[in-house]
Design goal:
316 residues; MetI-like fold; 16 helices; 2 strands
Length: 316
């Protein structure tokens, strides 16, 4: 009686199965030191970013003094609803944010499109340098220059006097009716180097075949921009809109240096109100509550933007 033959696996396959765990361990031993390189960064993030944020959340439910803190529950958040200065600052923030969203989707995009369509590469290069070079100047320096421009003896009033419009001169940062518009027009013509580069990179990433096909079809430069180029850089536009909204929701450098929120509350923003509450009133609990509300708004805006971006990609 013949013994049935049992099919055997190839020796190479058996060795691969046997050696797979051993191979994985060897691979992990090789790359483990690389993970140690990011350990200092991780520790700094935990200590200086995440721990203060979590601590601020719990502090927002306390009445804090230098002697200690007392748990008061939701009182700080209830106080926000009755804070007239904070409510007025929210209106200012909304106006500044909407204005800068309009700016970020127009001016740097216009500059990038004009330079992208220049026929001479060398001219393109030098114009890119001109727009990017101001990025090396610290933001504080730029704001201080504009603060001088808006002063009584500053550049704007000097130019108005020279062209015979002396009746238009004023203390631009001391007038309640115009101070917010003065903040909006800071950094005119609003072509930030980073925004300009993001748009230009998006335009340069468009396949040349699509642009050539539009030219063959007889599309004019303007029609080609709106029908071909603009739809293909919607991702860059969404990114810059999101970054702009987040920046203005959380920052207060411009009104702090230019006006310190004045005159009165006419240029106050929530971030600056939070800063004054902590640094001047020494009310860390209430300041932390304002910070948590701002964080919640930034989180909601980010989630909405990500949702809209995902929906747009699925539609495509």
């Amino acid at each position: 009686m013949e013994t049935p033959m049992i099919p055997s696996q190839p020796a190479t396959a058996v060795s691969e199965v046997v050696d797979e765990p051993h191979r994985w361990r060897l691979s992990f031993r090789r790359i483990a030191p690389l993970y140690l390189l990011i350990l200092p960064t991780l520790l700094f993030l935990l200590i200086f970013i995440y721990y203060p944020a979590i601590s601020g959340f719990f502090t927002s439910f306390t009445f804090w003094t230098v002697k200690g803190s007392t748990w008061i529950g939701w009182e700080n958040y209830e106080k926000i609803l009755a804070d007239k200065r904070l409510i007025a600052s929210a209106s200012n923030l909304l106006q500044l944010t909407l204005f800068n969203v309009v700016v970020v989707i127009t001016m740097p995009l216009l500059a990038a499109a004009l330079i992208f369509h220049l026929p001479h590469k060398r001219v393109q290069y030098w114009l890119r340098v001109v727009f990017v070079f101001p990025m090396i100047v610290p933001m504080v320096v730029t704001i201080m220059v504009w603060r001088w421009m808006y002063s009584l003896d500053g550049g704007i009033n000097i130019m108005l006097n020279l062209i015979g419009l002396s009746e238009w001169t004023r203390a631009w940062l001391g007038d309640r009716d115009v101070v917010l518009y003065a903040l909006m027009f800071t950094n005119f013509p609003w072509i930030a180097g980073l925004n300009f580069l993001i748009y230009l990179a998006g335009l340069q990433n468009i396949p040349q075949e699509l642009l050539d096909a539009a030219v063959v079809d007889g599309a004019s430069s303007i029609r080609r921009f709106f029908k071909v180029e603009l739809p293909l850089i919607r991702g860059q536009m969404r990114l810059l809109v999101l970054l702009t909204v987040i920046y203005w929701l959380r920052s207060f450098e411009l009104p702090l240096i230019m006006t310190d929120g004045g005159p009165g509350w006419s240029s106050m923003v929530p971030g600056l109100r939070m800063y004054h509450t902590i640094s001047r009133d020494f009310n860390l609990g209430y300041g932390s509550a304002i910070g948590m509300v701002l964080f919640a708004f930034v989180l909601v805006v980010t989630l909405i933007q990500l949702r809209l971006t995902r929906s747009g990609e699925e539609a495509i």
